[in-house]
Inverse folding.
């Protein structure tokens, strides 16, 4: 496209300005932007990805150094981000730590101990399977359990951490207790087992052996712990052959254990 301007009638000369190349470039750029929804979607997702990078970097640093010693500069360097990005997503270091608990640690524990126990046929075998899958690599053992690490460090100091960590432990305990109650109803778990107490004891053994292994810096300790825990779990089985109950007996047992559980909850 050309625009012509007569600068002087006397000179008889004209100035021609050609915008064709620039206009073409602008139009092509506009069309390219319209035809690139993926690029636009990527731009929109960048805040989510930035937040995820911050959480992952913070989780690694907290696991390595503990929350109090975890440095924001170290976290940002690991994530390749600036302080502006950090404070865009999190008010302060505590808010970042809470998010690590809720969005990194909690899903990990729930995936291992809650979802894995849903709709299982043999609760004892399911629990044994989870225990036998506890990581025994030196790098996992030497760092300890992140949930337990934070509970030991921060629960005495910060109510925000304590309440969030308590929620995770409660969900873990209830998942184990619930599956044990189901086992009692179906005759695969001993009737004299108290589900809540057994669930608490299981958590104490798992975390206790993890702490001992971390202190010793020796995977053999957690391996021995897994052996002892699985032996204890097997002792919860109904002795002898599995009892086969009729439908009416199943209903009666279910009612009995439900009432028993309600009384425990009230207490």
């Amino acid at each position: 496209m050309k625009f012509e301007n007569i600068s002087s009638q006397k000179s008889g000369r004209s100035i021609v300005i050609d915008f064709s190349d620039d206009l073409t470039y602008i139009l092509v750029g506009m069309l390219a932007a319209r035809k690139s929804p993926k690029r636009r979607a990527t731009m929109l997702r960048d805040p989510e990805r930035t937040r995820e990078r911050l959480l992952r970097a913070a989780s690694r640093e907290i696991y390595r150094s503990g929350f109090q010693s975890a440095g924001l500069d170290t976290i940002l360097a690991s994530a390749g981000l600036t302080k502006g990005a950090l404070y865009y997503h999190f008010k302060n270091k505590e808010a970042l730590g809470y998010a690590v608990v809720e969005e990194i640690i909690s899903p990990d524990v729930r995936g291992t101990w809650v979802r894995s126990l849903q709709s299982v046929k043999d609760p004892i075998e399911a629990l044994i399977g989870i225990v036998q899958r506890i990581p025994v690599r030196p790098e996992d053992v030497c760092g300890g359990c992140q949930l337990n690490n934070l509970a030991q460090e921060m629960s005495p100091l910060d109510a925000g951490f304590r309440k969030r960590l308590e929620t995770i432990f409660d969900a873990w305990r209830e998942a184990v207790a619930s599956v044990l109650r189901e086992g009692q109803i179906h005759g695969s778990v001993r009737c004299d087992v108290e589900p809540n107490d057994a669930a608490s004891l299981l958590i104490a053994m798992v975390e206790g052996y993890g702490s001992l292994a971390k202190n010793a810096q020796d995977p053999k300790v957690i391996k021995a712990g897994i052996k002892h825990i699985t032996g204890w779990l097997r002792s919860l089985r109904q002795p002898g052959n599995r009892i086969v109950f009729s439908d009416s007996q199943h209903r009666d047992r279910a009612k009995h254990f439900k009432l028993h559980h309600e009384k425990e909850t009230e207490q």
